[in-house]
Amino acid sequence: MANKLSRERISSDHSSQSPAEKVAGNEDLLTEILLRLPVRSLIKFKSVRKQWSYLISDPQFALDHTSRTNPSSLIPSSLFFHNSLTESRDIDFVWLNDINIPNQSPRVRAGVPSLSFLDSGFQGGIIRILHSCNGLLLCRFYTTSSVCEGGLHLCVCNPIAKTYALLPKPHDITQNNFWIFSISLVFDPCESHHYRVVFVKKTSNSADYSIDIYSSENGLWTNSVCRFQLPSRFSFGTGSGVNWNGGIHWIGDNNFKCYSPVFNTRTNNLTLTELPTKPPQSSIQYFGAFGGHLHLIYAKDILPEQFEVLEKDRDTLEWSIRYIVDMNQIVSAFPEIVTDTGLDADRMIARFPQIAHVIRSCRGEIQEKEYVFNIMSVVERGEKKEDSELVLIVPGKVISYNLKLKTLKVLSEFPWKELPSKDFTPTYRNYDVVYPYMESLASV
User: Is 298 helix (H, G, I), strand (E, B) or coil?
Assistant: First the structure.
């Protein structure tokens, strides 16, 4: 009789549970449901229950979530960038997806997380992004005393999760006999929840470059995993490299040819590849990867009427022309791109009469106008060319140009800092450093 009453009581308890409670009590079913949710929702759900937080924080859950995620969500949704021509020196951003929710600030509307959570660990200094990779940011912290202390303060953070990890200093960082050429982040959420930091340096008394690597798996730096030399008078593109096709790609030239050193992150070997020939009176305007595509853009330094967007094939590793951009159309829609250089022949003659004959002989070559813009990214959201856009920063705006449909739209606006005019000094052209960003569950 007692057993019968006990079974009835248990049956009554189960029948009184709501559907939500039944799901919460079934870990396998709960996991299946959570794996189908976007990252932003999962971050919020971590605070609902300890059980949910435990499941979502599990590195294996993050790997499973990435493997099940629609490939389109692995494409960056926004760009962080340092823009020195705004009123603020803060890290700025631009949202790449079409969204318009009224009565919200741009940052809230876009959903791009702030990096203010880093302030608690780095009070009294300046935080700069060095590199981004699949939802994680590599940052450097500067203080007035950091240089005197031989300090290289690095951290890796996940902005959406508001978490960060301080990195130990690389070997021999306190010594002043070498130059830092590049610090890059490597993270593939489809393969592992661990990340690596690739540190390229060169000692002052050697022609060799060397690469140190930090691994989050063991929390240690490995010294000189690779040593290499570059061609004579090679100008190594400083800054972080470009992650593409299993390697970190840099770019540089020696005034004759353009090269791309490529570090294979699986074999720790470096190769030097030659880039397509640079057109006369042109320079490298963009080199970057987006959505699995690697692009290169050469353009004339002054008043380019059009330029080509080159793409490298993942299999053949050959470069080919993918798009041609008509700058006349862009300038027609945004005439503020055109600015005076200050190089007016008559004004120059009035100021420097002793060389008036030289100025008159060069009058036809003096450029009185120039374009002020910067290519931020070539955005590829899929294999269809209709989904491809060129993102540019122009005075006061970030704009996008659809490379197939030839349409233009404004992505963001910001206060533009007017630079003081100086006689015969070309307008400063801002080369912003851009970091693609996507949301990630990765733990650091």
Answer: strand
